[in-house]
């Protein structure tokens, strides 16, 4: 009989501490919660770009770099999902002092992304859904690496912005995405997440392909008629959101870089 009551007490204890109210401080993290079938747990999100339909009515706690701390606290979260770059250093420190569990996610490669999907699922009490999704992502990643592997990597410049000119450093997940596609980020030696570079430095590194975000960026490069690089448009913005959908965004990028495959 005593074992029965002990087991019952443990069940009620687990239910008492179960995550029920989650605030996500990055669109990619919000997307992961939706992919895990846990959108019902989200009581607040940090906005940045178009929301998934499942989150249309979830209250906002601000925008990228502009967190409304009062609004966040009013929602009484029992878990905060944080992408470090989504809020400033002072507010990050403030969050850590709130006595509310904070899970920090910042994957630097696609393998880390699959691991963090599983970890977030466990934080949400959706471990089984996390295992299923992480396994699916791992298999898709292995398939893409195998399919687009090259003996000599394609040398690629990935443009984030044009005025001033920004790219991604070697420790960024987008740089790893290029590697999955059999390409190499020509600025992979730079450690800053989004280093500013010059047109001259890009030309010195002699990329075979320049990936741009829109037609205006593409047109700007046409002012350099001696440049030998191919100009290609990044298919969509999915590469900028490290969530489960990113694997299919990588697949679309690979197809753009290697249409013959």
From TrEMBL:
Pfam families to which the protein is assigned, alphabetical: Peripla_BP_2
Domain Fe/B12 periplasmic-binding residues, every copy: 21-261
Designated name of the protein: Periplasmic cobalamin-binding protein
PANTHER family per UniProt: MOLYBDATE-BINDING PROTEIN MOLA, VITAMIN B12-BINDING PROTEIN
PROSITE patterns for this protein: FE_B12_PBP
Gene responsible for this protein: btuF_2
InterPro entries per UniProt: ABC_Transporter_SBP, ABC_transptr_periplasmic_BD, Vit_B12_bind_prot
Keywords, sorted A to Z: Signal
The keyword Signal belongs to this UniProt entry's keyword annotation: yes
């Amino acid at each position: 009989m005593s074992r029965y009551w002990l087991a019952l007490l443990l069940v009620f204890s687990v239910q008492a501490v179960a995550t029920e109210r989650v605030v996500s401080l990055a669109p990619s993290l919000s997307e992961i919660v939706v992919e895990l079938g846990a959108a019902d747990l989200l009581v607040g999100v940090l906005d940045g770009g178009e929301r998934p339909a499942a989150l249309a009515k979830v209250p906002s706690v601000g925008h990228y770099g502009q967190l409304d701390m009062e609004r966040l606290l009013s929602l009484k979260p029992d878990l905060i999902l944080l992408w470090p770059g989504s809020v400033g250093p002072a507010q990050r420190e403030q969050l850590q002092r709130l006595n509310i569990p904070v899970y920090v996610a910042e994957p630097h490669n696609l393998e880390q992304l699959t691991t963090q999907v599983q970890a977030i699922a466990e934080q949400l009490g959706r471990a089984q859904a996390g295992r299923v999704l992480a396994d699916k992502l791992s298999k898709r990643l292995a398939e893409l690496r195998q399919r687009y592997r090259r003996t000599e990597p394609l040398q690629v410049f990935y443009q984030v912005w044009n005025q001033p000119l920004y790219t991604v450093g070697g420790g960024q997940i987008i740089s790893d995405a290029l590697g999955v596609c059999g390409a190499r980020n020509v600025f992979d030696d730079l450690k800053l997440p989004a280093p500013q570079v010059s047109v001259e430095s890009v030309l010195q590194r002699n990329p075979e392909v320049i990936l741009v975000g829109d037609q205006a960026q593409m047109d700007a490069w046409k002012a350099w008629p001696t440049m030998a690089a191919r100009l290609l448009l990044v298919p969509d913005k999915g590469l900028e959101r490290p969530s489960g959908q990113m694997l299919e965004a990588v697949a679309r990028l690979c197809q753009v870089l290697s249409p013959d495959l």
